[in-house]
């Protein structure tokens, strides 16, 4: 294939696609138009369903550079096709013109591209994207992203900008001054409006899209056919069901769009101030922002309308929209390499690497701080859909398709039915031609056999069980916006849980402290707030070593710091704006104990007295703060007690790290044992240290000293023991899931230590299990990427003796000895950065880590989504339970996403729980399993219904007969619809069991079940059909022969009454018809009972009272009209009266049929095949096997017989339990 005609866009990224160029061909278009007319619009429908065909049959291949239409195909396993029209953006208008017409030109495509550097650079850059002669840029829009033609790359590409390839030096030197109005207008034209537009489709548009579903088109075809055959009643019933289904579907889809639109539009347009080149401040709408604009962050905060990098001042930001952690984060200005001597001038700016300096779209700036007379400024780096929030919304709007085996198998099964229908279609035509039947009748009868074989009521029948499950879920407080996902939840074998607010209550609680004196641990102390400890260095460290701040008079910050500070009961005071302005520098934060805690409280007196004694008050000023670093696992502050000459250094962090930075003689000898005791109990332990600094270190020197000079030679002071309280129901729910062989994984935005501690506490990791932390380092300075492995219980620097030899890791990944596995199991833990490095550089390790990874900490929203996809790639059915907007992508991508919040997360999540508790997870899986088994039952029943009726009609066609209209109506409405809608009512089984239902219809047990019942039904129907012909009283009938009726008295005498006034045109009233009608009517009920199974996934069918009553009433009615004929009923149903002896014979045939069917289904199948399929589940209550993949139900039947049909694409290795 010519390279010019096929290229790759977004190479190496998640949305990588192949791109092909096409030009419209007029003669092809004319032929297709003629074909559409000739096929009555059916060809147009086919082209609507298949965009690849639509482009190929109306266009000719062309060079991508000059094409009018592009055809896109994803490179993932789904290979999905899309097409887009290439448009032109004119740049002939001068860049200083900012008219409305220019804005309107870009309103249709929401710009997601970033700006170039300077005005002259911009012109050079634009030469790559535009043709000099016309000054027009060719572009197309796909999934809200604009792709422009790039002459340098000879390919379409979206514009890169300040978030890629721009150095930190360039940020300050080239972009900090702002844009001119002319350049702003030019960039606005190119990059479009800064908005994340979620358009709510009109009801008409949604209706057309829904109605053009292939199932509804087939139903329309069936209804038209039945109407021509005067079969109105059933046609009306199908129309009513379809209308109800379409209306409910439209309501759900539109409601979801409106919720997402409202969530995004809440803060989409605000007024912002931007700095221009001449230092003037201009107020504009946030929708007019472009990359390169310098935005002024207001003093009282704002909701960020874009992604921006802070270049001046400090901001306190709530990033719960991104991280799920409602902890205010302090953002500082990006270090200026030209000022900071230690900075690297060539370091490139990246929003992820420089998160502490980047304000993300959708996050809330609560408060700003700045030097005197200076504004807090940030440079816009990304706008629209390219922002962090925009990418989140895109993942909700355009999720990857979820591949569920049941639906793939359902389509395959329907294809088989279509094949059977084709045989019947050909047979009917040949048989009728040989018997010289009229052409009109041949067409109707041959098409009718198709509607019999592929039942139009199948979608409604399949939906019934899901609707009932949805109703039951609503009763237990679980709401569903994607009902089809309920079935998929029945297959979940792994559930990812967010931590904060999901498994645990928010934050940590202080359990106690254990101080050290003279290198020995004292007894644990529960109360820290006491007069005895108020002036101790231990309490001083707790009072100063934190990152707390006051927002509107309320203390805010990390929950751990907050709990520590609240435990000592001290008071924090920050400098006011006036004090900062007066001293021209940021004043230190001061902490002091309440007066009642001081040993020598000041005597009560007047206010003047208190002011006079103020110098005697004990207070500490925080002079310098070294923030917590997850890489260093510690934080440090320099503080000074009021009146002291020397300053103090206080440090807190991971106990092993702190102990390593202390004088060995100050660390107790039993330090490791005490620490291990606490960690094994699931406590989070923090160590404290202190040292007096030299008197030569003045305030100014401290501001410039490196943290390495401070953080050494410390005195070890003791431990703080924190407890992350689990929600009351968490351990019990996780135990239930483990007993059901459902793996649990924690994915959180919190730090590693807390996550591992909680995982142990809740039973996700057992006490005897080992946790290995994978720390992956990206390539740097010519060194290749590498992974350091070490045990979580002994977290130290990677070069310590606790590090694990990488060669030993593969041994720990695969356990051949199951006994050893029961003693010690290994779990892998990693943070988001390591996960990204492993995904990029260690692809071969990903499947193994997915099988054994239990804790994933510091995960960004997109990383959570990638984790879900990675788990799905090793054949897990993944559930995701979370409560924050940061979980949106993962909730949408997972097979079953459950939101515990009714805010942002519920928009993306298929399921939302009213109660913020993970107890909803087992409930959802139980209902999912019940709904899945109901779907299997209904599908099997509908398949048998089709084949039984198909065979009945085929037998009768052989004698030029058929079932009568009211016979069809009685079977279709009175039996089938009643049975289908009542057999779906079985509630879920009361507890989760270790077995899982098979994931697809093409499994040995299910195939055997369907095929055996088909053979049994066909056998007994054929027996009745041919046996009746052998009877002495049998009379053959033909079309237009006079209908005959035989009335036989109980004493055996018979009289023949011929109705000579009504010739039977369609040859309905004959002995074969009556025999086949009665036997087939009973067969529908027999297979319904045989397929209605209960335990272990559903309640027994005898508890389904509606089903039991319906079946008994139908049995009684059919038995009654068979054994005791009623003239009026016989006339309506076109039944002939047969001798009483034959009625008893039919009853015996039916009873034998029932015995054989139920014996084969419920005894042979359950006792032999079912146990073979589920034998894996007898291996123990709380043990995962290492030898079987999670989808064991895909047995050798499928692999042998249908692997070519189902597994045509290359698949990842199957997941194995750990």
Automatic annotation (TrEMBL):
The keyword Mitochondrion does not apply. Residues 272-396 form the P-type ATPase A domain. The keyword DNA-binding does not apply. It is found in: Early endosome membrane; Late endosome membrane; Recycling endosome membrane. SUPFAM superfamilies: Calcium ATPase, transduction domain A, Calcium ATPase, transmembrane domain M, HAD-like, Metal cation-transporting ATPase, ATP-binding domain N. Its EC number is 7.6.2.16. Residues 13-150 form the P5B-type ATPase N-terminal domain. GO terms for cellular component: early endosome membrane; late endosome membrane; recycling endosome membrane. Residues 176-226 form the Cation-transporting P-type ATPase N-terminal domain. Keywords: ATP-binding, Endosome, Magnesium, Membrane, Metal-binding, Nucleotide-binding, Phosphoprotein, Translocase, Transmembrane, Transmembrane helix. It is an enzyme of class 7 (translocase). It catalyses: putrescine(out) + ATP + H2O = putrescine(in) + ADP + phosphate + H(+). The chain crosses the membrane at residues 27-49, 232-253, 410-430, 450-469, 936-960, 966-989, 1001-1028, 1074-1092, 1104-1124, 1144-1169. ATP-driven pump involved in endocytosis-dependent polyamine transport. Uses ATP as an energy source to transfer polyamine precursor putrescine from the endosomal compartment to the cytosol. This is Polyamine-transporting ATPase 13A3. It comes from Bos indicus x Bos taurus. The lineage of its organism: Eukaryota, Metazoa, Chordata, Craniata, Vertebrata.
């Amino acid at each position: 294939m010519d390279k010019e005609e096929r290229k790759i866009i977004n190479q190496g990224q998640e949305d990588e696609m192949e791109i092909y160029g096409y030009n419209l061909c007029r003669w092809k278009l004319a032929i297709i138009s003629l074909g559409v007319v000739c096929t009555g619009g059916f060809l147009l429908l086919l082209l609507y369903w298949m965009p690849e065909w639509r482009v190929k049959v109306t266009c000719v291949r062309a060079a991508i550079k000059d094409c009018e239409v592009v055809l896109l195909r994803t490179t993932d396993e789904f290979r999905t096709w899309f097409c887009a029209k290439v448009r032109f953006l004119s740049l002939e208008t001068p860049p200083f013109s900012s008219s409305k017409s220019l804005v309107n030109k870009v309103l249709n495509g929401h710009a997601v591209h970033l700006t170039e550097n300077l005005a002259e650079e911009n012109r050079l850059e634009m030469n790559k994207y535009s043709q000099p002669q016309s000054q027009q840029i060719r572009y197309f829009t796909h999934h809200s992203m604009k792709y422009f033609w790039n002459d340098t790359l000879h390919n379409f590409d979206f514009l890169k900008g300040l978030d890629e390839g721009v150095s930190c030096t360039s940020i300050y030197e080239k972009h900090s001054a702002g844009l001119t109005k002319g350049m702003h207008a030019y960039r606005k034209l190119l990059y479009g409006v800064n908005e994340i537009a979620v358009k709510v489709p009109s009801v008409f548009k949604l209706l057309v899209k829904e109605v053009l579903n292939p199932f509804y088109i087939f139903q329309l075809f069936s209804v038209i056919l039945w109407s021509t055959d005067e079969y109105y009643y059933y046609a009306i019933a199908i129309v009513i069901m379809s209308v109800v289904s379409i209306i409910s579907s439209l309501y759900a889809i539109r409601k979801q769009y409106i919720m997402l639109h409202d969530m995004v539009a809440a803060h989409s347009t605000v007024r912002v101030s931007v700095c221009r080149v001449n230092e003037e401040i201009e107020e504009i709408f946030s929708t007019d922002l472009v990359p390169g604009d310098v935005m002024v962050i207001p003093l009282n905060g704002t909701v960020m309308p874009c992604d921006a990098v802070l270049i001046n001042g400090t901001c306190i930001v709530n990033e719960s929209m991104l991280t799920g952690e409602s902890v205010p984060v302090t953002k500082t200005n990006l270090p200026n390499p030209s000022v900071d001597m230690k900075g690297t001038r060539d370091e490139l700016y990246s929003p992820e690497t420089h998160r502490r300096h980047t304000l993300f779209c959708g996050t809330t700036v609560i408060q700003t701080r700045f030097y005197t007379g200076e504004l807090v400024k940030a440079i816009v780096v990304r706008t629209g859909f390219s922002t962090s929030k925009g990418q989140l919304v895109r993942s909700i709007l355009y999720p990857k398709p979820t591949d569920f085996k049941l639906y793939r198998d359902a389509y395959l099964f329907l294809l088989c039915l279509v094949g059977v229908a084709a045989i019947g279609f050909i047979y009917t035509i040949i048989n009728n031609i040989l018997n010289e039947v009229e052409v009109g009748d041949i067409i109707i009868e041959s098409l009718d056999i198709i509607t019999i074989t592929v039942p139009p009521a199948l979608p409604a029948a399949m939906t019934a069980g899901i609707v009932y499950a949805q109703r039951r879920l609503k009763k237990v407080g679980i709401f569903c916006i994607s009902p089809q996902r309920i079935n998929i939840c029945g297959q979940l074998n792994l559930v990812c849980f967010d931590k904060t607010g999901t498994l645990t209550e928010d934050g940590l609680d202080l359990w106690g402290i254990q101080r050290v004196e003279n290198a020995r641990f004292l007894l644990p102390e529960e109360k820290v707030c006491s007069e005895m400890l108020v002036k101790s260095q231990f309490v001083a460290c707790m009072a100063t070593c934190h990152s707390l701040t006051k927002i509107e008079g309320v203390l805010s910050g990390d929950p751990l710091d907050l709990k520590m500070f609240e435990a000592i009961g001290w008071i924090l005071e920050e400098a006011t704006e006036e004090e900062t302005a007066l001293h021209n520098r940021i004043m230190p934060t001061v902490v002091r104990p309440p007066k009642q805690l001081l040993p020598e409280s000041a005597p009560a007196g007047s206010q003047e007295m208190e002011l006079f004694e103020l110098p005697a008050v004990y207070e500490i000023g925080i002079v310098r703060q070294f923030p917590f670093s997850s890489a260093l696992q510690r934080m440090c502050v320099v503080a000074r007690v009021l009146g002291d000459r020397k300053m103090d250094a206080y440090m807190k962090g991971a106990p092993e790290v702190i102990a390593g930075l202390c004088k060995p003689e100050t660390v107790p000898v039993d330090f490791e044992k005490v620490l291990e005791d606490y960690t094994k109990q699931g406590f989070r332990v923090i160590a404290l240290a202190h040292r007096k600094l030299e008197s030569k270190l003045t305030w100014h020197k401290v501001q410039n000293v490196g943290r390495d000079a401070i953080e050494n030679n410390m005195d070890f002071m003791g431990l703080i023991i924190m407890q992350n309280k689990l929600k009351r129901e968490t351990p019990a729910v996780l135990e239930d899931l483990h007993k059901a062989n459902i793996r649990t994984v924690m994915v959180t935005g919190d730090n590693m230590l807390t996550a591992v501690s909680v995982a142990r506490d809740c039973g996700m990791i057992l006490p005897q299990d080992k946790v290995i932390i994978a720390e992956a380092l990206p390539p740097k300075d010519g060194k290749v990427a590498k992974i350091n492995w070490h045990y979580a219980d002994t977290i130290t620097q990677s070069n310590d003796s606790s590090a694990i030899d990488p060669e030993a890791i593969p041994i720990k990944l695969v356990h051949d000895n199951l006994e050893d596995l029961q003693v010690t199991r290994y779990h892998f833990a990693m943070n988001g950065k390591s996960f990204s490095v492993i995904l990029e550089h260690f692809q071969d390790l990903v499947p193994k880590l997915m099988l054994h990874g239990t804790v994933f900490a510091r995960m960004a929203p997109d990383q959570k989504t990638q984790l879900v996809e990675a788990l799905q790639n090793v054949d897990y059915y993944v559930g995701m339970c979370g409560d924050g907007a940061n979980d949106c992508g993962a909730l949408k991508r997972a097979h079953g996403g459950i939101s515990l919040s009714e805010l942002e997360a519920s928009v993306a999540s298929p399921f939302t729980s009213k109660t913020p508790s993970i107890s909803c997870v087992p409930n959802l899986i139980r209902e999912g399993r019940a709904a899945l088994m109901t779907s299997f039952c209904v599908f099997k029943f509908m398949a048998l219904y089709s084949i039984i009726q198909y065979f009945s009609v085929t037998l009768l066609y052989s004698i030029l007969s058929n079932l009568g209209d009211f016979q069809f109506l009685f079977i279709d409405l009175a039996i089938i619809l009643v049975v289908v809608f009542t057999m779906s009512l079985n509630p879920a089984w009361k507890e989760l069991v270790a077995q899982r239902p098979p994931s697809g219809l093409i499994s040995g047990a299910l195939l055997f079940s369907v095929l055996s019942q088909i053979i049994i039904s066909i056998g007994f129907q054929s027996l009745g059909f041919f046996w009746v012909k052998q009877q002495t009283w049998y009379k053959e009938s033909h079309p237009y022969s006079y209908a005959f009726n035989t009335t036989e008295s109980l004493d055996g005498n018979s009289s023949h009454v011929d109705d000579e006034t009504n010739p039977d045109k369609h040859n309905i009233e004959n002995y074969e018809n009556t025999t086949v009608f009665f036997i087939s009517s009973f067969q529908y009920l027999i297979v319904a009972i045989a397929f209605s199974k209960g335990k272990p996934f559903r309640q027994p069918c005898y508890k389904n009272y509606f089903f039991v009553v319906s079946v008994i009433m139908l049995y009684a009615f059919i038995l009654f009209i068979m054994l005791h004929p009623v003239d009026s009923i016989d006339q309506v149903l076109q039944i002939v009266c047969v001798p009483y002896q034959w009625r008893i014979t039919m009853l015996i045939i039916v009873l034998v049929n029932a015995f054989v069917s139920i014996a084969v289904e419920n005894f042979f199948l359950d006792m032999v095949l079912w146990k073979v399929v589920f034998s894996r589940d007898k291996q123990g209550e709380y043990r995962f096997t290492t030898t079987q993949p999670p989808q064991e139900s895909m047995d050798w039947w499928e692999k042998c017989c249908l692997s070519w049909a189902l597994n045509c694409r290359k698949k990842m290795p199957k997941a194995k339990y750990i």
